[in-house]
Amino acid sequence: MSFQIHEVDESGTQVATYVTSHDGQGIERVDIIDSLQAFSSSIAGLLSSRAVLKGVGVGDANASPTAALLLSVLQDSMGRIATILFAHKLGTALEPECKMYRLLADIFNDFAMVLDCLSPALPKVPRVMLLSASSVLRALCGVAAGSSKASLSAHFAKWGNLGELNAKDSSQETIISLLGMLAGSLVVSYVESPIATWSWLILLLSIHLAMNHAAVRAVSMHTLNRQRANIAISTMLDQNRALTPDEVSLQERIFERDGVLRWRGTRIIGKAIIGVSLQTVIGFLGQPHVVTGSISSLSIKLERLVSLFQDEEYLLWYERSCRIAMIVLKSKASPQSQLKAWSHALLMAQLHASEDSASGNSKSMDEETLQRLQETLTKISIQWRQSLVALEAAGWDLNTASLETISSTRVCLQRNSASHRIHE
Question: What span, in angstroms and rounded, lies between the C-alpha atoms of 329 and 346?
Fold first, then answer.
């Protein structure tokens, strides 16, 4: 009789395997991808730093310390402004799309190093612009890397020891960066010519990006963002089978177009926007009058739409002409309700994927859309509880909302005997 004992650390990573056989197999070591990427990045950083120092006039008797200081102030100011704007624009999307932004942060950083190495070959004014652009890219890298790292650390802290995990990770990065600086000191001492510098830089950045790409691909997130929801829900509806996070990770794209709907990871069948305002949906329910701006028959369509979703925590409208599903969330929409809304939009897009959206007049299209919404809602609702149980059993975290990537609104519906009142 033989057996195996697997030992894991706080992040759930397997660090050792003990077997009863006598074949000499012992401990299986932790992957060294993260160490390799940090090591190569440290050496490349020294090469780019040397280029920046040369560009600002180190070693040039005619260089002005004041000019170098003002350049530093300009770079710092540009970086701070970029940080504010980037966080404002994409702050909501950083956690749901943490894998994409983690790799994108490294691309920003590596491109900034390339710009730094280009700066000494340019005249003064273009050089200042190039170094300012480099500072902006590093600021974007800082925002994307910091936010995505927080999400990934929370994913790996399976025992609730997030602080300990971050402390150990910082210590490991410090050691690797120190070793990289020591090795980089030898590299910059012997690599002087432009050809050798660029050859080393391209090699190191290639290793850095390749290691980060492999590391991101190896992560299997347990939350359902839009892309993972497309894969898991379409398989559930098509084959009545719940994929595990590892199975979905194999089909997941690191860079995906914003809000697209794919059936089982194949071609794009539509687009969905979750958390839109009610005004956006109203704009598609009818054409406003040229003079008054009023929309004919709006109250009838809106009342039917509200009645259709009166027992749900969302409203959904699918615009067939442009294959866009718009999801309005109610004030108490739970993560499971948001996932149901996305699943409903995915099913609607699948049903209309092979249809000619331009056929028929507007009135008949709206009537058919309302009918299809009711049919698909009934289909989704019948098997929704069973689907949630199957997804949770497969290892998915359904209590964390990861579908919204923009600052969204909520609506509150108040009913009385005469009419419906909706507050946004």
Answer: 16
